[in-house]
Each structure stands twice: as C-alpha cells, then as structure tokens.
Specification:
With 354 residues, this protein is α+β, with helices and mostly antiparallel strands. The chain has helices at 5-12, 15-29, 34-53, 66-79, 81-100, 205-208, 210-240, 244-274, 283-309, 312-316, 318-330, 336-349, and strands at residues 111-114, 123-128, 131-141, 149-156, 159-166, 171-173, 188-199. The radius of gyration is 20 Å and the shape is globular.
Length: 354
C-alpha cells in the first residue's frame, strides 16, 4: 500500500535493506529498554528474512494442505515464539485478504492482524471526503514497528469493520509493553489519528467468515509448537543423563499430551479441508475444542518441565527461559473460562455431541 521510495526499497529489496529500515525505526521510536530493543530488533530481522525467503508462502486454510500450513506454524514456534506470532499474523492476513478481498500484498510486505478488543480504548472508523479514516488507540498490536501493513478492526456507524492500513502514519507507544514475555513480538498500543484506511469485506465480515474459526486453530498450532519446544529441553536432559523416575513420569505425561494435541490438529486440518466453507457449521465448535485442549496441554508442559528439571534451565539456558516466558504470555490469547463457557454453550446445543 505504501508508495514512498524509502519504504518501497525496504520492502522490495533483500532482507538486509529491510533490516536497515528496522534500525532507522529504532532510532526514530527510541529503544524502550536495552533488552526489549534487542529482542524486537532480533525478531524484526528474522521476520523480514522469513518473508523474503518465501517460507510464509503457505497453502491457504481449507485448500487441501492445512496440515502443512499448521506444521509450518509449529516449526516456527519451536524456533522462536515471537517470530511465530508475527509469521502467523502475516499468513493469516494473506488468508483474510484472499477470503474477503482487499489490497493485494506487495512482494516483501510484512502484514499483521490487529483485532484485539479488550476493555479500554479502541479504534473508530468514519467516512471522510476522500474515504475512510481511523481514530483512537488499538491495544495488543504485534509487530507495531515491524509490519509494513496491517488489517485492523474498528467500530463504524454500520457495525464492526475490518480495514487495511499502511503503518507509516501510525503512532506506537513504546512504553506500553514492559513485560519480558513476547518482548520480541513488538506488541504495543498503537495510536491512530485520522489515518486513511481501505475497507476489507462487509460489516462483521471479519468474524462471520469461515476462515475466522480456521485461523483460530492456526494459533493453536503455534501454541503446540511452543510447548513442543519447551518440552525438548526435558527430552534432551532425559537422553543425556538419568533424570530419575519422577522426571521420567513427567516426560511420559508430556509425550501423551503433545501427541494428543498433534492428533487433534491433524484431524481438525482434515475436517477443514473437507469442508472449507464450513457448510456443516462446525467451525466454531472445532476451534474452541482444539484451542482449549492445546492451551491445557501447553500449560501442563510448562508445569511438568519446570517440576522435572528445576531452576537450572530457567536460570542458565537463555533460549529455554525465553521460550517459557513467551509461551506463558502467548497462551493468554486463550480466554480461559470465558472460552470454556462458550464451548459448553455450543456442546449443550448439540445434545448428541458424544
């Protein structure tokens, strides 16, 4: 969507040009803490390189290779959860644009989806003389200084809408994410001040489309990959030394949990490929089940790995401790009892579920 020479060269050139662009952003927006700056700068570099490499040119959900799509998310999450968060958002944006129509992503562009609606400030949309304009503050914007374009939800006079926005005119609040977990994802509050926007789909189109539920399972694939990454520290320890019967019991339980989630993801992928338009109206129930199962297993992996290995990896293994902190935060995209209550409602409506 951008047309300025500097943004175009960063987008269309090699990954190195994009990295230079990120460094300029660092100077412009300030560091926000040395450790946080290093984290999001590292992720920005990796995200740009991943987009440029074509690794995110994935099959669309429901196109017959959904297992492959989610396996890619899980692998990325096992490498770096902050990177996976951005990559999943980019791939989801591409899928949304394909489903609802909208601007065609330019080569090398880095997209995100900013659709969180927690209590507090939010974004409103109004029609101006030259088109739609967005105002307000959107919270939980991953890739706030990294993405080149985003899809953002906003309240309009005709209902909730989705818009495509160039990030160049946005105002990230660099002090709005002081946390350690997911620091690399550059998840900030972002201000909108009469920012031009292109509508994507009809009112309520973002949540009413079949792909909304499909994408929700894709996020669970990232949680699974993150849990698998944390669990590998336990598996590695068990393969190198005698960790004792109690730790082995934890390893056995972790194995069962992860294999159960993998089977659920595979079955969900097959079901989506068999019914991409959700003609059977099973998408919401499927997504809630898989997300709840994955969240529960991932939380159990965190607990069991910590109990089995103690403080050692958390205190002396930087990659493991970062993965634990990141996964702890990432899992809170599951809305706990609120999502379980919604699942219960749908199950009650389907009396013959079991």
């Amino acid at each position: 969507m951008r047309s300025s020479p500097s943004s175009t060269s960063a987008r269309e050139g090699p990954a190195g040009a994009a990295v230079r662009d990120h460094r300029e952003l660092m100077d412009h927006w300030g560091q926000g803490g040395e450790a946080a700056a290093a984290a999001w700068r590292r992720t920005a570099r990796a995200f740009a390189a991943t987009v440029e490499s074509g690794r995110l040119d994935l099959p669309l959900p429901g196109a017959g290779a959904t297992r492959e799509r989610w396996a890619a998310f899980a692998d990325l999450a096992g490498e770096d959860l902050s990177l996976a968060r951005l990559c999943e958002g980019h791939a989801d944006a591409v899928a949304i644009l394909a489903e609802l129509g909208g601007p065609r992503p330019e080569p090398g562009s880095r997209w995100g989806v900013w659709a969180a609606n927690p209590p507090g400030p939010n974004v409103t949309a109004s029609r101006g003389a030259d088109g739609w304009l967005l105002d307000g503050t959107k919270q939980y914007c991953s890739g706030a200084r990294i993405c080149t374009d985003v899809l953002v939800t906003a309240a309009a006079d005709d209902g909730a809408r989705l818009f495509a926005v160039d990030t160049e005119l946005l105002e990230p609040d660099v002090s709005s994410w002081p946390a350690t977990g997911m620091a690399g994802s550059d998840t900030l509050d972002v201000g909108f001040a009469r920012v031009p926007a292109v509508p994507v789909g009809p009112p309520a189109g973002y949540t009413n489309r079949p792909g909304f539920s499909h994408g929700g399972v894709g996020v669970a694939a990232c949680w699974y990959g993150g849990a698998r990454g944390v669990a590998r520290t336990l598996l590695s320890a068990a393969s190198k030394r005698d960790i004792g019967p109690h730790a082995l019991a934890h390893l056995g339980a972790v194995d069962l949990g992860l294999r159960t989630v993998r089977a659920a993801l595979d079955q969900a992928a097959d079901d989506i490929d068999a019914d991409p338009g959700d003609e059977r109206d099973e998408g919401a129930l499927r997504a809630l089940r898989v997300r709840a199962l994955t969240e529960a297993v991932a939380a159990d992996v965190l607990t069991r790995t910590g109990r089995a290995l103690g403080a050692g990896p958390l205190g002396h293994d930087e990659a493991h401790s970062r993965a634990v902190a990141d996964l702890t935060v990432y899992l809170r995209q599951h809305h706990a009892e609120r999502d379980l209550a919604r699942l219960g409602e749908l199950v009650a409506e389907t009396a013959d579920t079991w």
